[in-house]
DNA sequence: ACCTGAACACCGTTCAAGT
DNA sequence: ACCTGAACACCGTTCAAGT
């Protein structure tokens, strides 16, 4: 064919604006400042200073952008702990950071639960690191996935709980119809200090970790 | 003032159509047949044979209708088990039915997590029955709520997992970059039989139940 | 008291037309 | 190759007008 031509302005690399990374970063900025209700294709486009329709040259749908965000956030989950701590403490550290990241992004949980790992490299890297940690702790290969999935289910559910109003258990005018529950709520630790969700999370996490350890045939 | 008048046609009780119960039942019919994507104020109104705007004389918003549905479904969760079985089996039965009900209604989980029990009588009744079951089993009052919340978090997360595609863990072209995870997935029980989610749920439920039992100061 | 129909202020997405 | 602007087919919700 004809001689190779330099494309674009030859000098500095042409600065593409609508890359996956840029769109994801802009999306996170919108979500941080205006929440998920304020995160629309319009608000995302505005932040990138393009027309909404321009986004569709790079993402097939809003759902795809959400998947990019999800995978991006997965890199923030601490997995280094598995190389530094023993299994119970490593799981605790991993689970806490996992919950913390997604408590701020609960609308993504419905996305994650359905997401194919093959399209989410950082999510896959997270699973690989956790699996490695379990194996190093002597876990039987066949029991690892159910344990991770169970922990993950607990983490996702706890993420919702973490951002729930603190007064959801106030029985109000129906207190007399639920005396036992009302009393239990009043007696629960972390009440009024706003740490009830943390208490429940740590309680469940402890139970899962001890429960896995004390399971019939060991780990 | 003037003499009391009988209102409406005096004979048979005027059959009100847009009651909370009727709206809730119609909403569930729409959701069952067309899913949550197909559940709109328009589709709900169509099933009730009224204009969409008529709904707003009875419900303040779509979110309120969702809260009605959530509370309605809570009555389907099995709590009778606490009067019939010992604590571990009762918790297992309760948790299984709770997960089963909401696996078909995962979009409601975001609603539940934020819902005030004072506005949800059946939800409150469920908590009361569970609390009673824990007390009867000898649980310390102060430890009940964190345990219930932890179990609930696990149940909600597992509900998402229950309806996830079975192939989410297929690593595809990235298998070589995640050899340990890929091998663990291949070795996991329930694979190909489509029962992986059930395996993970039962594994986690067992761990939680045993973990609670084996917790420092007993229950 | 409660319904209808029109309207409002949005959504996500598509697509012809441009460069 | 990638952007714009207009348009489409929806949403949930409001409200004046009716009965």
Automatic annotation (TrEMBL), chains A, B:
<protein>
    <submittedName>
        <fullName>TetR/AcrR family transcriptional regulator</fullName>
    </submittedName>
</protein>
<keyword id="KW-0678">Repressor</keyword>
<feature type="domain" description="HTH tetR-type">
    <location>
        <begin position="17"/>
        <end position="77"/>
    </location>
</feature>
<dbReference type="InterPro" id="IPR001647">
    <property type="entry name" value="HTH_TetR"/>
</dbReference>
<keyword id="KW-0238">DNA-binding</keyword>
<dbReference type="InterPro" id="IPR009057">
    <property type="entry name" value="Homeodomain-like_sf"/>
</dbReference>
<dbReference type="Pfam" id="PF02909">
    <property type="entry name" value="TetR_C_1"/>
</dbReference>
<feature type="DNA-binding region" description="H-T-H motif">
    <location>
        <begin position="40"/>
        <end position="59"/>
    </location>
</feature>
<dbReference type="InterPro" id="IPR050109">
    <property type="entry name" value="HTH-type_TetR-like_transc_reg"/>
</dbReference>
<dbReference type="InterPro" id="IPR003012">
    <property type="entry name" value="Tet_transcr_reg_TetR"/>
</dbReference>
<keyword id="KW-0805">Transcription regulation</keyword>
<dbReference type="InterPro" id="IPR036271">
    <property type="entry name" value="Tet_transcr_reg_TetR-rel_C_sf"/>
</dbReference>
<dbReference type="Pfam" id="PF00440">
    <property type="entry name" value="TetR_N"/>
</dbReference>
<keyword id="KW-0804">Transcription</keyword>
<dbReference type="InterPro" id="IPR004111">
    <property type="entry name" value="Repressor_TetR_C"/>
</dbReference>
């Amino acid at each position: 064919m004809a001689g190779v031509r330099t494309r674009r302005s030859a000098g500095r690399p042409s600065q593409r604006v609508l890359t996956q990374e840029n769109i994801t970063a802009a999306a996170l900025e919108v979500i941080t400042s205006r929440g998920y209700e304020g995160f629309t294709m319009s608000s995302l486009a505005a932040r990138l200073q393009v027309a909404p329709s321009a986004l569709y040259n790079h993402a097939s749908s809003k759902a795809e952008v959400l998947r990019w965000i999800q995978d991006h956030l997965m890199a923030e989950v601490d997995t280094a702990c598995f190389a530094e701590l023993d299994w119970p403490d490593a799981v605790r550290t991993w689970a806490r950071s996992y919950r913390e990241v997604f408590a701020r992004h609960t609308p993504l949980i419905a996305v994650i639960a359905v997401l194919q790992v093959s399209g989410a490299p950082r999510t896959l890297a997270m699973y690989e690191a956790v699996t490695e940690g379990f194996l190093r702790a002597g876990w039987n290969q066949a029991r690892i996935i159910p344990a991770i999935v169970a922990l993950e289910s607990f983490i996702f559910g706890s993420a919702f709980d973490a951002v729930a109003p603190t007064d959801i258990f106030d029985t109000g005018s129906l207190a007399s119809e639920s005396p036992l529950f009302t009393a239990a709520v009043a007696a629960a630790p972390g009440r009024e200090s706003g740490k009830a969700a943390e208490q429940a999370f740590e309680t469940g996490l402890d139970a899962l970790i001890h429960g896995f350890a004390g399971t019939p045939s060991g780990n």
